[in-house]
Design goal:
heterodimer; A: 4 domains; four-stranded antiparallel β-sheet; B: alpha+beta; OB fold (Dihydrolipoamide Acetyltransferase, E2P); 2 domains; 7 strands; 27% helix; 29% strand; metal-binding (chain B); transmembrane (chain B); cell inner membrane (chain B)
């Protein structure tokens, strides 16, 4: 009975969404204010129903109702309660329902927080969001209902949640990622509504910007935590695999990054308007494309869930409608858009334009590398794979000009600049970068490869250029506190975001260059050296968890004869399904991680062990956190709250 | 030329140059990194209608079932070798390191590596998916139609 209530709530939510799609759009078209005014209450209504339906799913999972197929396939009675809750999004049907929850919550938030918008625009934004909601609800109800029953023959015990997903990182990774994906649908709706209204001005950019920033912040956080989860859970210390599913989240991120830079230009200067709209459409389309790639079964990856060609076809059709419709609208309306601003070659506008080019090129590279094997296979040309070096090489090449530009762009002003004083500044900065990089690398490592030096120098360059710019902006004021207060939150967001990128570049470079690993076979009491650390294998002991048993290899780590830490690298065997899982032991540090994975038992009491020494690997996630934080602090900016005032004019 | 036109010309030239350079680079990098997928029988007998065989030293991916009883571990190091099969001849895979959690005899795996002899691949990566029922789709396709037939292999009379 209870699962049926959940299903029924979804049906109701879909009918409300349908009304949310039709009423405001029709009202805006005919100028009927009463129809438009129905939108916010419809948005709130469908949100309550969808959230209720999700709570029903959580409830039946906690109650171990194995008559429901989804619960039987993704949970078990011995699963701890918190993993029971996360199992509601550990499988395909539940994940889509979670997506729906996010979609309806974002729609509701837009409805509540858009009071300052003119009714025509507000109604259209909500109408477009309603349309997207209908698409996903139809999909859930028709193709992937999590409330389907296994009657009359249902199992007495569930199949348990995939052990890989039984990890704290997995609790928050999908919701954050979906928050980001779905959040981009808000930017998309704003773009479509603006196209329908025919008014693409800086006020539109100003309204769209905080939503885009928030969505981008969530997406960044989701990707960061996904990378951290892969690192700590997959047991071999990798943090990015260029797996199609990862690429599916990276592509919208790259375009969204371009979008928010372009939005800032549109807001401040009134140029790049049509380009910004196109980016907003692209970003959300790539989210849908990502969903298609992940769910349709055309790829093989660690992530690929239970897949089904019909589902793929539905998502592909939905994608075609959304992309086709919005591009058609774009094509008919874009000719009416004029840019007002003028700018010279050496200006902030141009650097931001080049930044956009780089990000779009990066997206195209990822798209090519992800889709080519699929197209190749669908055309019957045989199965191929594109090696990781392809992505690494291309990104390494792109990063060089991108990072150089990233360091100097914030120092430029809008419209135009005088070159000589800037060049003088850059020469000083370049010198400082070289000195710092040399001192840093040669004091920490014995061998420094030229490419490692260049890549590290880029990170240092970004860091000190950003810091110098911050200092120069503060020091024009009478005192430090006044100067710091005068800086807008958008500026702080930029500083954080750019410093975050510097951390990520430094981390990726140094981890890739200086990580060492050793696979050893050890008997109890034996030791192995890796860099300056000595690992003593103390033997293996039995372990027992709530739904798994197994062994833990005990290893004591010494440095210069002193004990650093004791690590327990586990090899678990989950009771249901008898799956083996390596649970790596990690000693994390600001400058290095020690990472240990237990292999198989070999002859005569020996075990195989894999030891990794990974310098600076934490900086990657630290950088990711800084970047996502940049997306969130802009939300606190007063400019984006309450009634919209006249657009502020930036000093020329 | 007036400054406006000059700016446009510059932009167009920069765009053409940039696109050209990036397309060239991308194609070059792609060419270096496309790894063809083979099944053991394709590797030995040739792939496709032209029966193209891979060259020694070529990087490739191979997928098949691990032949039961073929896994040999070195006593003192982590060297391991095993044989892969689909419907025809077997291919030997050599690997150094710890095999993935779900590596088991009789299971479908995918290995990436370099062909060192006509039927020996030195793998740098061995993948077994984290799912009990998993069979790489490429392997599944290759063994399609022989589902109910036991693969005919015999370790004593190799190939």
């Amino acid at each position: 009975m209870i699962p049926e209530i959940g299903y029924f709530a979804l049906v109701l939510a879909m009918s409300l969404s349908l009304l949310l799609c039709i009423f405001p759009l029709w009202g805006a078209y005919t100028g009927n204010l009463r129809l438009m005014k129905a939108a916010p209450s419809l948005a709130i209504g469908q949100c309550i129903l969808v959230v209720f339906s999700f709570l029903v799913l959580i409830y039946i999972t906690l109650m171990d109702d194995f008559t429901v197929a989804y619960v039987a396939h993704h949970s078990s009675s011995s699963l701890p309660w918190y993993y029971k809750i996360t199992s509601t999004w550990g499988g395909h049907e539940g994940a889509i329902l979670l997506w729906l929850v996010m979609q309806s919550v974002w729609t509701m938030l837009v409805a509540v927080m858009s009071k300052s918008l003119p009714w025509v625009l507000r109604a259209r934004v909500l109408g477009v969001l309603g349309f997207l909601g209908v698409g996903f609800m139809l999909y859930t109800l028709w193709m992937s209902s999590p409330f389907e029953r296994l009657l009359p023959y249902f199992p007495v015990e569930g199949r348990d949640l995939n052990p890989l997903l039984q990890d704290p990182g997995m609790i928050i990774h999908p919701p954050l990622l979906y928050m980001g994906y779905v959040g981009l649908s808000v930017s998309f709706s704003f773009a479509i509504a603006a196209l329908l209204t025919g008014k693409l001005d800086n006020t539109w950019a100003k309204w769209s910007r905080p939503w885009t920033m928030a969505a981008w912040g969530f997406l960044t956080l989701g990707i960061t935590i996904g990378s951290w989860w892969a690192y700590s859970e997959l047991g071999w210390g990798g943090w990015w695999f260029w797996d199609p599913v990862e690429n599916a989240s990276l592509m919208p991120w790259l375009v969204a990054t371009a979008l928010l830079h372009s939005l800032s230009v549109t807001e401040k200067r009134g140029v790049f308007k049509s380009w910004t709209v196109l980016l907003a459409i692209t970003a959300f389309s790539l989210c849908l494309l990502g969903t298609f790639i992940v769910r349709s079964g055309i790829i093989v990856s660690v992530h690929a869930f239970a897949t089904d060609p019909d589902r793929g076809l539905f998502i592909l059709s939905f994608l075609a409608v959304v992309v086709g419709g919005s591009l058609a609208l774009y094509a008919t309306r874009v000719s009416q858009v004029y840019s007002e601003g003028r700018y010279q070659f050496i200006s902030r506008e141009v650097t931001l334009w080049v930044n956009n080019i780089f990000l779009v090129v990066a997206t195209l590279i990822v798209l090519l590398g992800t889709l080519l094997p699929m197209i190749h296979k669908e055309l019957g040309l045989g199965s191929i794979s594109i090696g990781v070096p392809f992505f690494n090489q291309m990104f390494a090449i792109l990063t060089v000009p991108f990072a150089i530009l990233l360091g100097i762009a914030p120092m430029l002003r809008w419209k135009q600049n005088k070159m000589p004083p800037l060049v003088k500044k850059w020469v000083v900065l370049l010198f400082a970068t070289l000195v710092i990089t040399t001192a840093w690398l040669f004091s920490s490592f014995e061998v420094v490869a030229p490419l490692t030096f260049v890549a590290t120098a880029l990170a240092v360059w970004i860091f000190i250029a950003t810091a110098t710019d911050l200092f120069s902006k503060v020091s024009v004021h009478s005192s430090l506190t006044v100067g710091l207060k005068k800086l807008g939150l958008s500026y702080w967001a930029m500083v954080l975001g750019h410093v975050g990128i510097a951390f990520v570049i430094a981390s990726v470079t140094l981890t890739s260059a200086y990580s060492v690993e050793r696979s050893v076979s050890m008997k109890p009491g034996e030791t192995a050296m890796l860099n300056e650390y000595e690992y003593r294998f103390d033997g293996v002991k039995e372990i027992r968890g709530p739904n798994y048993g197994g062994h833990a290899g005990v290893v004591t780590v010494f440095k210069d004869g002193e004990k650093v830490t004791k690590l327990y690298a586990e090899k678990r065997r989950y009771d249901i399904g008898m799956q083996f899982m390596t649970e790596a032991a990690i000693d994390d540090g600001f400058f290095r991680d020690l990472y240990l994975a237990l292999g198989e038992p070999l002859s005569a009491g020996a075990w195989s062990l894999r030891i990794y020494h990974k310098p600076y690997v934490r900086w990657m996630w630290l950088g990711g956190l800084l970047i996502s934080f940049a997306g969130f602090i802009v939300l606190a900016d007063k400019r984006y709250r309450g009634r919209v005032k006249k657009p502020q004019q930036q000093e020329a | 030329m007036n400054p406006r036109r000059k700016k446009r010309l510059f932009a167009v030239v920069a765009a053409v140059f940039g696109i050209g350079a990036s397309v060239g680079l991308t194609l070059y990098a792609l060419q270096e990194n496309i790894n063809l997928f083979y099944t053991p029988s394709e590797l030995v007998e040739g792939k496709g209608e032209l029966k193209e065989k891979p060259q020694i030293g070529q990087k490739l991916r191979i997928g098949g079932m691990v032949v039961p009883g073929s896994v040999e571990r070195d006593e003192s190091s982590l060297d391991v070798s095993f044989k892969l099969i689909d419907t025809g001849p077997m291919v030997t895979i050599r690997y150094r390191g710890i095999l993935p959690d779900l590596f088991r005899e009789g299971q479908g795996i995918v290995a990436q590596g370099t062909l060192v002899e006509t039927n020996v691949v030195e793998a740098f990566e061995v993948l077994a998916k984290h799912d009990e029922e998993y069979m790489p789709s490429e392997v599944a396709e290759a063994v399609k139609g022989i589902k109910h037939e036991k693969p005919k292999y015999n370790l004593n009379s190799e190939n």
